[in-house]
Each structure stands twice: as C-alpha cells, then as structure tokens.
Amino acid sequence: MKHIIPVLALSLISLSTSAQELNTLTAKEKKAGWKLLFNGKNAEGWHTYLQKDASAAWKVQDGALALDQEAKKNGAPGGDLVTNDEYENYELTLEWKISEGGNSGIIFGVHEDPKFQATYLTGPEMQVLDDAKHPDGKFPKHNSGDLYDLKKSEKNAVKPTGEWNKVKILKKDGKLTFWLNGVKTVETTMGSEEWKTLLANSKFKNWKGFGEYAKGHIALQDHGNEVWYRNIKIHVL
Question: CB-based contacts of 199: which residues, under 8 Å, 6+ apart?
Fold first, then answer.
C-alpha cells in the first residue's frame, strides 16, 4: 500500500531536521579542527565583559543566543558577551539576525582589563545593523559588514531585517578579511600603512589600546537592541 505523507507533516519533518543541524559541526569540520563556540543550549564558554558569568539577559531562543531587552528592564544586567578564551589567528563563522532598527556588532581582539571599561575600547568590530532604519545606516563605515568606523564594505550584502546573515571573519597574522553572505566586504592588515591611515581617519585615532592586541576575546555586542546569534564556530589557525 502506498503511503502519502501530508504536506504539513513534510514541513514539520523539514523544520525538525533543520533545527537539529543548528549549532553542530559536520564530520568535515570536526576533521579539520573546527570547534563550536555556542552549544545551542546555554552560554557555556562565554561571560559578560569584566564579569564572571554571562548575564541573564543573554538567553537561548530557538537555538540562538539572544539578547533579551525585556529581561534587562526587569533587572537583569546587560553588557557585551565575550568568549572565555582568547584567540589570535583563526577563521570565525556565525549567523546573526537583528531586530528592526537594531544595532550590534562582532568585536574581536578584545583585551579584558578593568582599565578598559568596554570591549570596543580595544577590539575592532564587524558591524551588525538594520541599515535601513538605524541612524548609523546613513554613515559610511557604519553599515552591516563594515569594519566599523574604519573601512566601508566593498559591496552591500546584508539581507532584510529579520533574516539570518552569514558571517566569516578570517584573521591571520594581522590580516583581516570579512565576508557577509558569501560576499567579501572588507580586507586590510592590522598594523600596515593602510591600517594606520584608516585609524588616523577614524574615531579611534587617539584611543590608546585600540587594535593593539593580537590575541584577545571575541565579543557579541549589547548595543541596547534585540539581536540573535547562532552557529558560532571557530577554526584556530
């Protein structure tokens, strides 16, 4: 007897399969030495900047690390989430989704020290933004995929707000390369003449410590808006 599976059932099976694939490594990734930075269940491996543990404002929602602004209103402290470990040469991949009018960022090379009261005081940032509705979207070097306030994306590759965007950041011996949704957006080398020029033309030109640490933490920014991150993976080079 031929069995016919209803379309709805097929859809549910597809969704279930997709959910199971979130925050996991493929056999190929495992063999290559990739590691998960987010297990899909909790904030293990992360903590709030300058704190021991992760703030309760960072929750897991539908397989993503989500910044819950309502939780902050109810007393949970906010703050940028940073990896427990530090990294120097690596390939980082992840997916992000931003709320309407929202702002966040992926910050790296973060030197955690009380004399630096915020992650962005030492770490450069790949911008995460609702380009269309956040005020920063009107400024060059402040759009999604940009090296924030340093270098503008070569191409606009961001998806509409509410959709997932795929990021790859390659950092090797100071050379930075950004991809957003498969499109290379930024390339430069930290400490190079180009870097010095970019720095001199940015808000960071007089910030002692900014971009000076080859090895540092990776941070997900709390900029006061809801944001979601998932499939966070790293391959140390």
Answer: 150, 205, 210, 211
Residues 94, 137: Cα–Cα separation, whole Å:
22
Q: Enumerate domains of the chain plus CATH numbers.
A: 25-236 (2.60.120.560)
One-letter amino acid for residue 110 of the chain: V
Q: Which residue is listed with tokens 């120097």?
A: 88
> How many CA atoms are closer than 13 Å to the CA of 6, on its beta-carbon side?
3
> How many whole angstroms from its chain centre is CA 227?
10
Kindly report, residue by residue over 9-42, the tens digit of the pLDDT. 444 434 433 445 899 999 999 999 999 999 999 9
Global confidence as pTM: 0.90
Q: How far is CA 62 from CA 55, 154, 173, in A?
A: 18, 33, 36
Q: What does the alpha-carbon distance between residue 125 and residue 115 come to, in Å, rounded to a whole number? A: 20
- How long a stretch of residues is the chain? 237
